[in-house]
Design goal:
Elements (H helix, E strand, L loop, with lengths): L3 E4 L5 H10 L14 E6 L2 E9 L6 E7 L8 H13 L5 E6 L2 H6 L3 E2 L5 H4 L1 H4 L10 E6 L2
Parallel strand pairs: 4-5
Antiparallel strand pairs: 1-2, 2-3, 3-4, 5-7, 6-7
Bound molecules: coenzyme A (COA).
The site of coenzyme A (COA) has 19 residues, from strand 4, helix 2, strand 5 and helix 3.
Amino acid sequence: MNVSIRNAIISDIPSIKSILSQYILETELVEDNIDQFIVAKNRGRIVGCACLDTGAGVVELRSIAVLPGWKNKGLGRRLLETLEQRAKGMTGRIYVRTTARGFFEKMGFRALDNSQKPVLWQDCAECDRFDVCMQVPMVLELR
Ligand SMILES: CC(C)(COP(=O)(O)OP(=O)(O)OC[C@H]1O[C@@H](n2cnc3c(N)ncnc32)[C@H](O)[C@@H]1OP(=O)(O)O)[C@@H](O)C(=O)NCCC(=O)NCCS
């Protein structure tokens, strides 16, 4: 697999948004958080992305996605492991809110009780879709 992973730059924004929108993942925050994104590139094309949100509150993995034709080739693992290395030294654990529970369990994350969401995230506490939200809170202890 001839794929390199590097920090995202501003000109990557349209490609990142295109990948995220294929899975109906949030795209509105990409511009403001571009410094926290990494991208995976094959032959000049962005084929995957991920973001480590180190803003307010917990350190959170967001927006991890690979193009449909690139699934199950180990790329999600590489993106996650790259951000894990980045997170070490700044935190002891990484959180995620996700519908891809199986992938994150494979990667060593453990599911938390849903009641933890409003405790960990202010936007969950204020969300009027909390009762119907399918995103599972999960945590990875870094060692
Ligand atoms: C989640 C996603 C990023 C995983 O990327 P990927 O490149 O397909 O995953 P990998 O090939 O690196 O898989 C790593 C391991 O997880 C497993 N895995 C991948 N997706 C899985 C899933 N949905 N359920 C269970 N296991 C899964 C793989 O089989 C592999 O296991 P192995 O190491 O035993 O072989 C990708 O499926 C995707 O883009 N999904 C849509 C977007 C999305 O929902 N993102 C989550 C936002 S929080």
